[in-house]
Design brief:
By secondary structure, this protein is an alpha+beta fold. It contains six helices and eight strands; from the N terminus they run ββαααβββαβαββα. 31% of the residues lie in helices and 26% in strands. The chain has an eight-stranded mixed beta sheet, sandwiched between helices. Helix 4 links the parallel strand 5 and strand 6. The termini are far apart.
Length: 213
């Protein structure tokens, strides 16, 4: 895994004082997505989706009840305030529905001014798997990260997953995060060997030129 920076390293400032909200347009087969910072009103939905065994297997921290959920959301909010971790609740908006439904999480983390690399992560709620939620949300997060932290020197994004998390590997490949290195296990937070995938800024810019050329 990429080593973390020293305690004296300056972290990036929050890219804007207003809440960041990312929109992913609907497709013929998938509803629109909204990515926004986590709120306390999300706790009940977070606890519900965290009951899923598959999610609990891959998650670094368990959410068993409202107290756990509150602490988890507070940690996401503290990351935004510190400017080094930016977690987004991923919400799906169905036509005619009054409330958007929580379907996942994406996060940009280990963001440090002057450092060329940061890390991304994600999970998808059980009821939303198989619909491309993670890949679509990750693409939105990737574009935002490279734009928001260009001045801070961000050049590449790293994505880590355990070798037996095949679904996460497919999301990485679909999102053009190229396999780079096999990582040794680092218990307890990373109990099995893993894959490191990387997406560089140059690759993102090239793909944009191809789409507009």
């Amino acid at each position: 895994m990429r080593p973390t920076s020293g305690e004296n390293a300056a972290t990036c400032h929050r890219p804007t004082s207003a809440p960041v909200v990312l929109q992913v347009a609907a497709s013929p087969v998938s509803p629109a997505l909204v990515l926004r910072p986590w709120r306390m009103e999300d706790v009940a939905a977070l606890v519900e989706v965290s009951r899923d065994r598959a999610l609990r297997r891959w998650a670094s921290s368990g959410v068993d009840n409202d107290s756990d959920g509150t602490r988890w959301v507070q940690a996401q909010q503290q990351g935004w305030a510190a400017g080094d971790r930016f977690g987004f609740a991923v919400l799906e908006t169905q036509p005619g529905s009054v409330r958007a439904q929580l379907v996942g999480n994406v996060v940009l983390k280990k963001v440090t001014s002057g450092e060329p690399a940061a890390e991304v992560g994600y999970w998808t709620a059980a009821h939303a798997r198989g619909r491309g939620v993670a890949a679509r949300a990750l693409e939105a997060l990737t574009n935002w990260a490279f734009d928001a932290f260009e001045a801070d020197g961000l050049e590449r994004l790293e994505l880590l997953h355990q070798v037996d998390n095949l679904a996460s590997c497919r999301v990485a490949q679909k999102s053009r995060y190229d396999f780079d290195t096999l990582l040794p296990a680092a218990p307890p937070s990373f109990p099995r060997d893993g894959h490191l995938h990387i997406r560089a800024r140059e690759r993102l810019e090239s793909s944009r030129l191809m789409r507009t050329g």
